[in-house]
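hey so u asked for the seq, here:
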Amino acid sequence: MKVLVTGATGFIGSAIVQELIKSGHQVLGLARSNAAAASIGATGADVHRGSLEDLESLRSGAAAADGVIHTAFIHDFSNYASAAETDRRAIETLGDALAGSQRPLIVTSGTLLLRRKGPLATEEDIPIPTFPRKSEQAAAMASRRVRVSVLRLPPSVHGDGDHGFVPALIKLAREKGDSAYIGDGLNRWPAVHRLDAAHLYRLVLEKGSAGARYHAIGDEGLSFKDIAGVIGRRLRLPVVSKSPEQAADRFSWLAHFVGIDSPASSNLTEEKLGWQPKQPGLIADLERGTYFEPEQPTQAAGSHQ
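ran it, structure tokens below
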């Protein structure tokens, strides 16, 4: 199968490209720069020049492919509404290009966006309607015309090369001289290793059902206090509690995410696709020590790219 991958040079997208190639698929990677094109070409994938803002490039790339995996997102928390609108237009454009063909389109979303009805967020839960990002709503529109599935990622997708929330927390700890959590720190974060997530993207591409929602969850819910504890111990810094009132000053743009309690399950996904996470969990990954080697560049990246 020839697969267009947006975000092909990103943290997750690059793992998906490798997973697809190893499984015999041909990959067409979206590249907005010469550096991205060179990186994609080095993997053995074909290069498709374009960007999320260049809708014609998305149309032509999707038209040339047997399926699309959409992982790219502009993680700019200073202008998040604009980034969300770009994502919405991109998804609808990809859907239009695949209309009537029954070719698969996999749209990336997140478990943080859900209105949880039970103790764990499940694939049956729906997004919070007021959240600015509308990936799933756009996917629902595309589903009227194309075989679209949604793959939801947890707030922490971890592994070597991570540039998301956890490296940002480590950077903050170094800058502030302590590793902090909010209140009692018992709010929970789900997590998944990038290689397990990449494997699930391939399974959804090959076996996913139209209109289905899938969860890539390794750890269902790690207490934020435990995450902060590992960071403090590895950096030899005190681990401290901050009040909700102190959170914005202490965590800056991360404050909203640090205090969220968002445990999630992937039980239905595992039953339907036979997917099983096999890589180390987040705590074990942190304990390996690579996160605490010379600082990695960070960006306000959530976990999707």
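The radius of gyration is 19 Å. Confidence is low (pLDDT under 50) at residues 296-305.
lmk if thats what u needed
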